[in-house]
From TrEMBL:
<dbReference type="GO" id="GO:0043419">
    <property type="term" value="P:urea catabolic process"/>
</dbReference>
<protein>
    <submittedName>
        <fullName>Urease subunit beta</fullName>
        <ecNumber>3.5.1.5</ecNumber>
    </submittedName>
</protein>
<keyword id="KW-0378">Hydrolase</keyword>
<dbReference type="InterPro" id="IPR050069">
    <property type="entry name" value="Urease_subunit"/>
</dbReference>
<dbReference type="Pfam" id="PF00699">
    <property type="entry name" value="Urease_beta"/>
</dbReference>
<dbReference type="GO" id="GO:0035550">
    <property type="term" value="C:urease complex"/>
</dbReference>
<dbReference type="InterPro" id="IPR002019">
    <property type="entry name" value="Urease_beta-like"/>
</dbReference>
<dbReference type="GO" id="GO:0009039">
    <property type="term" value="F:urease activity"/>
</dbReference>
<dbReference type="InterPro" id="IPR036461">
    <property type="entry name" value="Urease_betasu_sf"/>
</dbReference>
Length: 122
């Protein structure tokens, strides 16, 4: 046993069971690497990431908590997104939502378009 190690179950723990999963192709059009954490509202990630941004609204990466995905300049990679649980209230990130995902959607899409986020087709 490793100090601090937990044995929660003999069976593997599977996250995000019963939640919808969406796959999107993401390209880093910038000149620097971009790293995105597991619970970042993907709709609000760096403007230089190009992907169908509308599909990512209300979603975060489908990866273990506390981990991240790194997008190197010019690289394209396929990722999985899953919906936020709970009350679906998001604050921070790029400041596009700052409230209820349901109530702020139109406003967030407008802000993202005005601020030059890539991948919007509105």
């Amino acid at each position: 046993m490793i100090p601090g190690e937990y044995f929660l179950s003999d069976k593997p723990i599977i996250a995000n069971v019963g939640k919808s999963i969406t796959s999107v192709s993401v390209k880093n059009t910038g000149d620097r690497p971009i790293q995105v954490g597991s619970h970042t509202h993907f709709f609000e990630v760096n403007k230089a990431l190009e992907f169908p941004r509308e599909k990512s609204y209300g979603c975060h990466l489908n990866i273990p908590s506390g981990t991240s995905v790194r997008f190197e300049p010019g690289d394209t990679r396929e990722i999985e997104l899953t919906e936020f649980g709970g009350e679906k209230i998001v604050y921070g990130f790029s400041g596009l939502v700052n409230g209820s995902l349901e109530e702020k959607q139109n406003e967030a899409f407008k802000k993202a378009t005005e601020q030059g986020f890539k991948g919007l087709t509105l």
